[in-house]
Amino acid sequence: MRSARFVTYRSALQLVWVSLVVSILCFAGEIGCQAQELKFKQYGVPVWRGKQAPLNLRSHPLARKFRTLIREQMRDARINFAGHYTVASMGCGTGCSVTAIVDNRNGRAYFPDQLNGWTGIVGDYEYAENEEPWTYHANSRLLRAIGREHIGPLNEEHYGPSGIYYYEWKNNRLVRVKLKPVGSYPDASSTQPESHLGFLARRTNNIW
Predict the structure, then answer these.
(1) Does the predicted model carry a pTM greater than 0.70?
(2) pLDDT at 202
């Protein structure tokens, strides 16, 4: 009889512990989601309210090439990043994009190396509800992107691991602050040189 009671008591105790662990994990997950949202606030900046300057075509070789698309996005999106910048993205092939970050105060365009030839192809990854490939805000210096950053020479397709990348816009440069691996490509890899990214290298080197 005592043995049966002991087993029952032990089973009840195990059930309590399981319930407690599940509650803690659920709470931790909830906190984690909230922390992810709070990150943008941690990099918060005031939004500039001045008059938008025209795109400075002399600020970067690619600014002239993509001038029409950049101007359209500056006009439509206005300030959408880091207080006084416009993020403007252009396609460069299947799953490939080139991104300019334009200062609306003086029209100067910056083309971060990580986003020149960025690919959104990550393999096996299921987006969460309302999750976007790119997330950024007018009042934050933080940029979140799902994909693989371009590394190495522009005329070669070298990519970092697939994941969720977090960048801080600092001193007119993107600085990676976090990488959460996701998808099917955990390691950096490359394909054959002189791909569709070749035109970026030629344009940047003023060959065209």
Answers:
(1) yes
(2) 55
